[in-house]
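Why does residue order matter? Because the sequence determines the fold. Keep that principle in mind as you read this record.
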Amino acid sequence: MKIIYLILVLAVAITAVIFALQNSVEIAISFFSLSASGSLSLVLILTLTIGILIGVLILAPSVFKRSIQFSGLKRRMGRLEKEKSKLDEKLIENDECAENLRREKAAVAAADASPSSEDTGEPEPIIETISQKLKKSGLFGKKK
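Structure:
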């Protein structure tokens, strides 16, 4: 890109020199009470330069304003990227925690679903259950 820019600048400079050599006629310029004289090529190049400078001066405030906005947006983007990475980390932590809770819930559900050693699937009569508990405790079946 720099090479193309350099070639373009050289082409414009060569064209300006050729223009100046071919238009060396002396002219007089008047603006209100001011007057000046010089070669045609010098006057045209001077007016072109003044026009470019005026255009740059007119555009400069908006260029600076956009530059300031761009730097502010760049800082904001950096802050938002940091916040996003923190939120991504929290999301990963929450996903891991949720997965652990699902595993614990599945383990509890599996433990509740498996039949206990005392459970045969048929309800025992209440009297037999009470008498077995009393025998185990030693209060029932002792002879005095």
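The two ends are 114 Å apart (CA to CA).
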